[in-house]
Amino acid sequence: MPPPTSSPNAPAIDQGLLDQLEAALRRRITVDRIGSTSGRAERVHIDRIAVGEASIEQVTIEDLAARLACGSAILRNVRAILELHFEVHWSYDLKWFGSDSGVKTLGSKAKPIPLHDIRIPMLRDIAFDIPAATVTDVAATVLPVTEVALGAAAFEGLAIDDTRLPSDGFQIAGLDFASLEIESFAAPAADSRQLTIARFAPEEPLRLPDIGLGTIQLPEVEVPDVASPEPVTLMDIQPETFEAPVFKIGDLFKAVFVATPVLHLQIGELVLSELSATASIAGVQIQGVGTPVAVEGVRLGELRLDGLSVDRIAV
């Protein structure tokens, strides 16, 4: 603060005294502890609870059972190509005149056979069970919660330690004192119209307890017809060969006709119809859930503090 002006006839004021006076006017109130045995707020309102990206250490799914029922299957535009490879196996044994054997290839013949559409009725249900499945390091995005009205709230044991008021000191004009200390101050109660907190954000993430879900039975779901995106081709299906003797003279000479079939199947489209699916989960365990939070706009209306006590006020 600027030094006071003096009249020409007034005695001079020592500069050191002025500095001491300035320091005496800049004071800070220190309160060791503010406590209230109990209190009540008639209205508690939170504008916004902002939740960051939640991390989940582990999700365990227990006893997943699923069943897929299929009414029928249709094979559309089926065509078979049958190839026949012909050979003659011959041999002779003329005793002392000699013996020999060989294979004579007679060529092959291919014949396409159109089978059109083939319906396979009442396929058996497909069932599978998974005893347990574990997923780790899961991230989840949680939307903020806004306009939370909690109604009235009561609390006990409010305590505020080591308060400095204000943090950067204050000035008192027209009063000079070196120090002021009050050991304790007590009041039966204190009323406030409203307590407002603009925003607070804990440094540590909010740790939620483990979450366990019981048996989950998923309802039966009707599944639309499923069709293969491309034609299906089955190549080189080799049935058993067959033989037919065509010429034989005792044990001296014989010739055997051999036909080797090779089958190719071409399916234009595979369609599964009348599908339905059901599933059940015995339990889901969600462990290690943590998320950063920031609470904004906390208002406690009609606040009353009972049994208010203030310990050691120093200026």
Describe the structure.
Residues 1-7 have low confidence and may be disordered. Strands 2, 3, 4, 7, 8, 9, 10, 11, 12 and 13 form a ten-stranded antiparallel beta sheet that branches. A four-stranded antiparallel beta sheet has the order 5-1-14-6. The two termini are 20 Å apart. With 315 residues, it is mostly beta strands. The protein has one domain (30-314). The protein is 3% helix and 77% strand. The longest helix has 11 residues, at 15-25. It contains one helix and 14 strands.
- Helical proportion, percent range: under 10%
The count of β-strands is: 14
Instruction: Give the helix/strand class.
Output: mainly beta
Number of helices: 1
Question: What count of structural domains?
Answer: 1
The rounded Rg comes to: 47 Å
Largest sheet report: 10 strands, antiparallel
Q: In percent, how much strand structure appears in the residues?
A: over 45%
- Rounded mean pLDDT score: 77
The SSE order reads: HEEEEEEEEEEEEEE
Sequence stretches where pLDDT stays below 50 over 5 or more residues: 1-7
